Amino acid sequence: MHKLALLALSVAVGCAALPPAPAGPTARGPARARPSAQEPPLLPGTRTVSTEAPELTRREPPAEPVRPAAAAARQFTLPLAPRAETRAVVLLYHSFNRGNVPLSVRTRDFDAQLTWLEQHEVEIVTTTELLDFLDGRIALPARVALITIDDGFSSVYTQAWPVLARHKARFTLGLPTGMLESPKNAPVMNWAQVRELLDSGLCEIASHGHMHRRLAGMSGRLLKEELELSRQLIEERLGVTPVAYFYPLGAYDRSSAKAVQQAGYRAAFRATGAPIAASAGPMFWLPRVSIFHGESAGMLWNYYGARFLAQVSYDARRDPARGRD
């Protein structure tokens, strides 16, 4: 009995010395906040953009096509396309029904544009879905639109939201948090209104900085406010982590793109550009197409015609320091 007790004790000590079992079947890089609790696995041949890399990195294309089984949980209206055939256009809006202001779109035009997308087989997706596609995680239909709305103007809630709700159109709000915190001099939504849009299930939230300052050439405390304080306030007020960063005034350069990446954002969007394809380059100056006052739904042919869709989104080798949008 004495020998059996010694043997049991030695086994127990040996088991206690073993290292803990890994949390999953493979090692993963730094965690990124995502709106869903479960993150789909990376496909073979893909890699994420590291938020700790000293330089901007570029994704490798998947070694094999994305299978429909890897698609997002929701069912898309249109059939999924081979990865190389998908083109996405990120549409950028600002305010609605504010007279002849160049960046104010009439709601009747907005309604007609959403109707045009529906009638011409363009799938409206979320920012998360577009970024998952670019990371090689999911497949998308051939023609895709992403609706983004910058600045958090109150007209989004009073004018655009009824149109978006009627079409059940998904969209992303780029919020300048400092203006929502102190709205005295800006016609912006309050946090309760933003939360109502978020609770609808149609809305995602991106950071549009804190005080809507240009990131290009910025450093120190101001840069930290624009990137980190804005994200912190969104998390505290809404309980979500922003899905991306929308450059205020469209101003970016290589240094600011690197700062956005190192701050932990998944991607960043500028204010001008072309369609986005699977071969898009770095995730930190993705293009958008600005929609202006007086533009009819017919202008969308410029972005979904055969000639335009055949183009690659932009030259990934372009150095953004040479020019700002």
Summarize the structure.
The protein is of the alpha/beta class. It contains 10 helices and 11 strands.
Query: pLDDT below 50 for ≥5 consecutive residues: which ranges?
Result: 1-72, 312-325
Q: State Rg.
A: 22 Å
Give the termini separation: 81 Å
DSSP strand tally? 11
Approximate shape: globular
What brief labels describe this structure?
disordered N terminus; two-stranded parallel ribbon; 325 residues; disordered C terminus; 31% helix; single chain; alpha/beta; 7-stranded mixed β-sheet
Structure explained in plain terms:
The chain is an alpha/beta fold and 325 residues long. It contains ten helices and eleven strands. It has helices spanning 2-17, 107-119, 127-134, 154-167, 177-181, 191-199, 220-238, 254-262, 301-304, 306-309; strands at 87-93, 95-96, 104-105, 123-125, 143-150, 171-175, 203-207, 245-246, 268-269, 276-277, 289-290. Strands 1, 4, 5, 6, 7, 10 and 11 form a seven-stranded mixed β-sheet that branches. Strands 2-3 form a two-stranded parallel ribbon. It has a two-stranded parallel ribbon with strand order 8-9. The protein is globular, with a radius of gyration of 22 Å. Residues 1-72 and 312-325 have low confidence and may be disordered.
